[in-house]
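User: Just a sanity check before I run the rest of the batch. Below are the structure tokens for the first item. I only need the designed sequence back.
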């Protein structure tokens, strides 16, 4: 375990919360050449990522986010903490100046977003995530653009997960409610048959009831065995369904633990969950 970069985080048998205040103090990585221990490595990890937009300053400071096979990992934190930026970095939309991204053990840091999709990453961005003038079904078909095989069984699975989309399949996606649009966006990502799903604020701008419904759907998707890494504003609700939670502050890891641990932690409660 000595060289395991996740030692403090995952190797800890009591799975206690890792507190990592301050830039450059991440305990998730020791040295630059550590290799994950087989079988204990997350399925997808953005590891000790430092980077920003264009030639601008660093927004992320040795930030690590990851998701294990079959789990839901949630990223929370205050506005502007860099949650979306961290997701973009993992998806290859940001120049990662230090650190790396591993997918199923493979270093994909140098790959374009398109190539990452080919490798099995599904990403649902926070905004502009559907084609509003196209029908629901056309959106799903567009989602399958990288595939050359028969997509009908996948579409059937999406309709089973999101029955409302079957009812509205001939309707323009732009005519749907906010929660339904988000289902289209997630369904579209699922059409590539991804190995991991990344969601940036899937419940943004929806009512609490719709948010609960969306979370139920996300849990269902997760039960199909697909690992899910997501950013959420609704920290309390998201941590309640999370196997793993990351609290980011100013582009760095502030707290890491199971969803349950973070929800129970007095500091996290006070600072990020409204007491
Ligand atoms: N395209 C961009 N170009 C330059 N700076 C950006 C860009 N997008 C975000 N930033 C900056 O990066 C920082 C982190 O923003 P980011 O959107 O990642 O935070 P967040 O935690 O997702 O916030 P929120 O919860 O408000 O969505 C902010 O200071 C923001 O101004």
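Assistant: Here's the designed sequence for the first item:
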């Amino acid at each position: 375990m000595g060289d395991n970069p996740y030692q403090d985080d995952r190797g800890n048998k009591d799975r206690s919360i890792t507190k990592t205040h301050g830039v450059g103090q991440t305990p998730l990585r020791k040295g630059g050449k550590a290799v994950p221990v087989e079988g204990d490595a997350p399925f997808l990890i953005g590891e000790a990522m430092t980077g920003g937009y264009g030639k601008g300053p660093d927004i992320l400071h040795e930030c690590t986010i990851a998701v294990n096979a079959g789990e839901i990992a949630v990223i929370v934190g205050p506005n502007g903490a860099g949650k979306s930026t961290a997701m973009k970095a993992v998806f290859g939309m940001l120049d990662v100046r230090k650190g790396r991204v591993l997918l199923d053990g493979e270093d994909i840091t140098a790959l374009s977003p398109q190539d990452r999709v080919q490798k099995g990453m599904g990403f649902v961005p926070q905004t502009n995530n559907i084609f509003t003038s196209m029908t629901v079904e056309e959106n799903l078909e567009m989602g399958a653009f990288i595939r050359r095989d028969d997509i009908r069984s996948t579409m059937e699975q999406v309709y089973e997960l999101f029955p409302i989309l079957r009812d509205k399949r001939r309707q323009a996606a732009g005519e749907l409610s906010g929660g339904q649009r988000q289902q289209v966006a997630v369904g579209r990502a699922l059409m590539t048959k991804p190995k991991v799903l990344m969601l940036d604020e899937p419940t943004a701008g929806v009512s609490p009831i719709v948010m609960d419904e969306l979370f139920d759907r996300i849990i269902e998707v997760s039960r199909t065995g697909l690992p899910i890494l997501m950013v959420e504003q609704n920290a309390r609700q998201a941590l309640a369904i999370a196997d793993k939670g990351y609290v980011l502050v100013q582009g760095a890891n502030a707290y890491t633990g199971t969803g349950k641990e973070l929800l129970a932690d007095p500091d996290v409660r006070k600072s990020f969950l409204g007491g």
